[in-house]
Amino acid sequence: MAAEPLSNGAAHQSVPGRYILPVHKRPSYSANGKVAPPMLPVVDLGGDDDGRIAEEIIRAGREFGFFQVVNHGVPEEVMGAMMRAAEEFFGLPANEKMAYYSTDGKQLPRFHTSVRNGAGEEFLYWRDCLKLGCHPPEWPDNPRGLGAALEPYTAAVMAAARRVLRLAAVGLGLGEEHFEGSLSGGAMMNVNHYPPCPDPSVTLGIAPHCDPGLVTVLMENVGGGLQMLVHDDGDAGGGGTMWVDVDAAPGALVLNFGHQMEVVSNGRLRSGEHRVVTGAHVARTSLASFVWPELWCTVAPAQELVLDAGEGPLYRPYSYGEFLGVYVAEAGDRDAVMAHFKH
């Protein structure tokens, strides 16, 4: 189903039919009413108490798979320049953006609009996206400032992500270098753009999913939209799930663990399931930087965790290329994807 990108034309006065989801796929804003929605954990990466920071990362990863980081080392001016360049791209005339439009998932840079497959039917989700390469950097020539903003931003964000991965390894009882090398050798960025939606109750910006990689680092221009799925394990009398807004402090970065972290940690850390709801009044732009394994890299539960706990591995070994093939075929559905790799 070909579709004109949402950012190419005038503001929509109503939601086009192909963006209207079946009732069972539409967002629900109701909470379970039994507990107050939890707050997004804050991890301060400043200071030299790595043991404390590692504990906080593990606690947030075990409970939510999501947390925000402050004192992360990405300069404010670098973040601002990158966001301005991203917003400028989506404000370009349609013919200039469409020079980078492609349905080839392997092409970088690539501009596209969001199409997802569900139950034999194709639905459109309320998002345009510009995919950028990080290693090596790959970006459009237009706007002119994008490349100059992308390189320092990518370098600083990847440094923060690798610090978090080292601390997560320590917190899990692994060597701090466990996630280095081919296990974190891939990187890419999605620049997501969600124009104002006339009726946010009938569509979504992104369907519920977990990210395929190790860790994702997110920066956004306005709050609201991103939601994480929170599990109530019964301590508060619930035992169910609820969608909770991911509200980060100004200047903070939001991190979430992906499927590979859950596998390597043998289920100790949660891959953060999330979705994006639309807003009626303000356009939202977010930059999601993904850190993931090289395609040929073998992924499996860390042997130290399996042996020390005296428990069997929850997942079988696989190559990351195999995982991505399954992830695409199953349209990112968490349970369907992971069923292929359960031991």
From TrEMBL:
Protein name: Fe2OG dioxygenase domain-containing protein
Residues in Fe2OG dioxygenase domain copies: 185-293
InterPro entries reported in the protein's UniProt record: DIOX_N, IPNS-like_FE2OG_OXY, IPNS-like_sf, Oxoglu/Fe-dep_dioxygenase_dom, Plant_2OG-oxidoreductases
Keyword flag Acyltransferase: no
Pfam families noted in UniProt: 2OG-FeII_Oxy, DIOX_N
Keyword Oxidoreductase: yes
Cofactor: Fe cation
Keywords recorded for this protein, A-Z: Iron, Metal-binding, Oxidoreductase
Domain of life according to the entry: Eukaryota
Protein family: Belongs to the iron/ascorbate-dependent oxidoreductase family.
GO molecular function, one term: oxidoreductase activity
